[in-house]
Write a structure and sequence with these properties.
Helix content is about 60%, strand content about 5%. It is mostly helical. The strands form two sheets. Strands 1-2 form a two-stranded antiparallel sheet. The mean pLDDT is about 95.
């Protein structure tokens, strides 16, 4: 017998968490890990533009850790199941990359409008999804205990994605578009 992608268990508007609990599909926990999944897909799109680069390798590590975070968010608070461990070195790696890339960029004097290159613009979209994931996880942490590394990772990741978007604009020949308020 072959594997079927559908189970019909979610037809009532509920989904199962790791550990067996069932919650509504609109539960803040589901919104949180669903948005982390969306973020992972957006980062995959960015990766598709920069295959073979050092940045692609960093994004691959980030995606793997997003799956770890997703598993922690998709787990019932009282689940006894052993979950994959988070590699905290990725946070330091992102900080080193932010510092390295920032040295190659012009000083930031204005807000930047996304759109100088498609690569940088997609990275900005990933940054926005990351910020939304962070907001949802912070909301969830007000209700239930969340591993501290989750919020820290998402916060640092949004900084990295902003810096990477500027780098990709530069790398692919775009000129940053400064936001200049209309008077």
């Amino acid at each position: 017998m072959s594997f079927k992608i559908y189970t019909r268990k979610g037809d009532d508007g509920k989904t199962g968490l790791i550990g067996g609990d069932r919650v509504a599909k609109h539960h803040i926990r589901v919104e949180s890990y669903g948005t982390v999944d969306e973020l992972n897909s957006q980062i995959g799109l960015v990766r598709s533009f920069i295959q073979g680069s050092d940045e692609e390798s960093v994004l691959s590590d980030i995606q793997n850790n997003l799956f770890v975070i997703g598993s922690h968010l998709a787990s019932s608070p009282n689940s006894k199941m052993e979950l994959p461990s988070f590699q905290s070195r990725i946070i330091e790696q992102m900080e080193r990359e932010i510092d390295r890339i920032t040295e190659t960029l012009p000083e930031l004097k204005n807000f930047i409008l996304p759109g100088a290159t498609s690569q940088g613009a997609h990275c900005h979209v990933a940054r926005c999804v990351c910020r939304r994931a962070e907001r949802l996880v912070v909301h969830l942490s007000d209700i239930e205990e969340i591993q501290p590394f989750v919020i820290k990772f998402l916060n640092r990741l949004s900084d990295y994605l902003f810096t990477l978007s500027r780098h990709l604009d530069q790398k692919f020949g775009g000129r940053e578009i400064p936001w200049i308020p209309q008077k």
